[in-house]
Amino acid sequence: MTTTADIEDMIARMAMGDRAAFEGLYNATSAKLFGVCLRVLGNRAEAEDALQEAFVKIWRNADRYRVNGLSPMTWLITVTRNHSVDRVRARKSKQGAGLDEAAEIADSKPGPEALAMASSDRVRIVDCMGQLDPDKAGAVRRAYLEGETYQELADHYDVPLNTVRTWLRRSLLKLRECLSHDG
Amino acid sequence: MTDDIDKDEERALTAEYILGLLTDDERTAYEEVLAIDPDLRSEYAFFADRMVALTDDIAPVTPPAGLFGAIKADLFGTPKSDRATSKARSWLERLGLFPAMAGGVVAAVAVLWAVNLYVPGAPTGDGPAISAPTLQAQIAAEDDSLIVMASYDATAQTLVLDRTAGTARDGRSLELWLIADDNPPVSLGVLPDTQAGTIAVDPALVPALPGGVLAITDEPQGGSPTGGPTGDVLAAGPLTQT
């Protein structure tokens, strides 16, 4: 079993140019990160390209990982998720607005495959999301997992953009407040 | 009171930053503060570490087998920014050729530098001649036992070839292939027996030339009977614009 400390160690060695560590990291994390690409992009070919580009970024930025204060899996998933979101948005702006295919991808239920690296305080977000209105929690998920923008959320919920921004910010503050109470 | 508002604003901005909801200007401003403010960094790390748990229920999916090879080629392969070439590499790796090619490219850089005069139609120094970029490749074996210089003549739609080393084995032919993107090699034809010669390029293949790789295989006399390479890959080189 690969532990958080193992991953941290591999990233540290990658920062010094250790290619074997990079391969170890790839073997330990690529399936999870590919799952993230597939979830965001909903398209296998694009997800493969995104994963390839994300790992290039991960190698190149390994030396800067230390300073950001994130846990190693958070950093890896964030790099991958952000890169996939950039791709989704580039695709949408190329195709023109109004596409809503990604919405058809159903949220999967928590499964036994949840990463062993997940810690209890992270799992707490599930409780806290459950305390939001279903619409608000849905909007947070759409933004995080599908890369939706305020404009797309406004279109989806059929409310003005400023309104959606106001209520989403309020929901995010509520979520943040809930997270700071120890679960 | 003011502090609370600031705190809320900081938290809301952090959440919006993590979700990617800020405008470009807002994001840049946020990152500038993030770089210098340890409190904001710990707020960011706190929220990002928890938000990422939204991906916990995403099932892992094993990526295709060749992907790590493509990543390594992107990062550690010969310096080629062209993505098509890195994809072509996965084919070369499947052919067991990539290491040979990597050595070949290093040699090619030195050789091309020395033999620039080879480029057909290159300005000879008389007046301000301007020529369109020319595609050329040095298709070389690792040990230089076979070297073919290839240059694409766009007007005639032919590859102009100059075999400076090596010949086909007795009763065998040398066949030239184009490898573009992640596609299987496409035959461009059997190399002429003469040292210098030309091979016409199917117009449909022309768009695939830039960033492609040319390879030469050992085939039965007259060329591969199957449409794909059957013999050893003897030499390869990327097509580059000059």
How would you sum up this structure, described in words?
Chain A is mainly α and 183 residues long. Chain A has two domains: 96 residues, Rna Polymerase Sigma Factor, Chain: A (Orthogonal Bundle); 66 residues, Winged helix-like DNA-binding domain superfamily/Winged helix DNA-binding domain (Arc Repressor Mutant, subunit A). In chain A, 70% of the residues lie in helices and 0% in strands. In chain A, helix 7 crosses helix 8. The longest helix of chain A is centred in the middle third of the chain and has 24 residues. About 11% of the residues of chain A have low confidence. Chain B has 242 residues and is an alpha+beta fold. Chain B folds into two domains: 54 residues, no CATH class; 160 residues, Immunoglobulin-like, CATH 2.60.40. Chain B is 35% helix and 23% strand. Chain B contains six helices and nine strands; from the N terminus they run ααααααβββββββββ. In chain B, strands 6-3-2-1-9 form a five-stranded antiparallel sheet. In chain B, strands 5-4-7-8 form a four-stranded antiparallel sheet. In chain B, a hairpin with a 4-residue loop joins strand 2 and strand 3. Chain B starts with a helix and ends with a strand. At the A-B interface, helix 2, helix 3, helix 4, helix 5 and helix 6 of A face helix 1, helix 3 and helix 4 of B.
Features:
heterodimer, A: 183 residues, mainly alpha, Rna Polymerase Sigma Factor, Chain: A, Arc Repressor Mutant, subunit A, 2 domains, 8 helices, globular, B: 242 residues, alpha+beta, Immunoglobulin-like, 4-stranded antiparallel β-sheet, 6 helices, 35% helix, elongated
Task: Briefly note the CATH topology name of the largest domain in chain B.
Answer: Immunoglobulin-like
Summarize model confidence as the mean pLDDT of chain B: 76
CATH class of the largest domain in chain B, named: Mainly Beta
Unreliable sequence segments of chain A: 97-117
Multimeric organization: heterodimer
Spans of chain B of at least 5 consecutive residues whose pLDDT stays below 50 are: 79-88, 96-132
| Broad shape of chain A | globular
